Amino acid sequence: MKKSAAAEKTRFSHAALLPAEIVTILDGYSAPSVLISADYRILAANHAYRDHYARDRDPCQQHCYTVSHDSEVPCDQAGEQCPLQNSRATGEPHRLLHVHHTPHGAEHVDVETRPIRNEIGEILYYVEILRHVGIASTDSKAHGLVGNSPAFNRMLELVQRVAMSEATVLLLGESGTGKELVARAIHAASKRARQPFVPVECSGLTEPLFESELFGHEKGAFTGAYTRKIGLVESAHGGTMLLDEIG
Fold first, then answer.
1. Residue 134: left if φ>0, alpha if ψ -120 to 50, beta else—which one?
2. Residue closest to 69 by CA, chosen among 79, 123, 10
């Protein structure tokens, strides 16, 4: 009984700190962020969340899925994965891509959920951080990457993940499925976005031209080399190179 009473006291003391302590932490995030209870209720929201999602109403004490999805049931009961449900099940942070309804229309959002624990390790709340994914749209009239299917959203998750790394990426797909669009999206979401994006059509390069086109040559290096030529690899320095039809 004493242990239970102590736990309840800890929960109460943390709840009492919620208005001052937690809201201050939330406002430290530039992205829309909320504090959520295990039953999906929004307990606190930062200014960015209120500006982007609230629609002139107080989001606190509403369910998160009501505000972001106009839904009456949690995401996992509506055929979607739910980051909060996954964090509840594992006790670990979880991240996935959702499509949220906003006053500006439907948007792709990278949702990250982080459990908040007390001194004895019990999960009290969950912080949910929502980052707009600007490299894709749900509007069929938009240019670039457009979609809203589970497969499309899974692809977008992978794009977001790999864009932050320096890894070489292999894109597979039939001709016309948008591999170059995906490559451009990876570039746009990366730290190299301000640097060049250089696509190279490999199927049009003969073997004698391949080395010269990619790596350049100096004046006089071979017959017909009248000037110095900068290769495409050097042109893409600091940016991204797409080797199209590399197979």
1. alpha
2. 79
Look up residue 2 and give its two tokens: 């004493």
Integer angstrom CA distances of residue 47 from 28, 52, 71, 149: 10, 9, 23, 31
What is d(CA 35, CA 26) in angstroms, rounded to the nearest whole number? 8
The alpha carbon of 193 is separated from its chain's Cα centroid by a whole number of angstroms, namely 15
The sign one gets for the Cα dihedral 104, 106, 108, 113 is positive
Which tens digit of pLDDT belongs to each residue from 232-241?
A: 888 888 899 8
Helix, strand, coil percentages, rounded to 5, for the chain: 35, 25, 40
- Asked whether 222 and 179 are in contact (CB, 8 A), the reply is no
pTM of the model: 0.70
Q: Tokens representing 63?
A: 């369910």
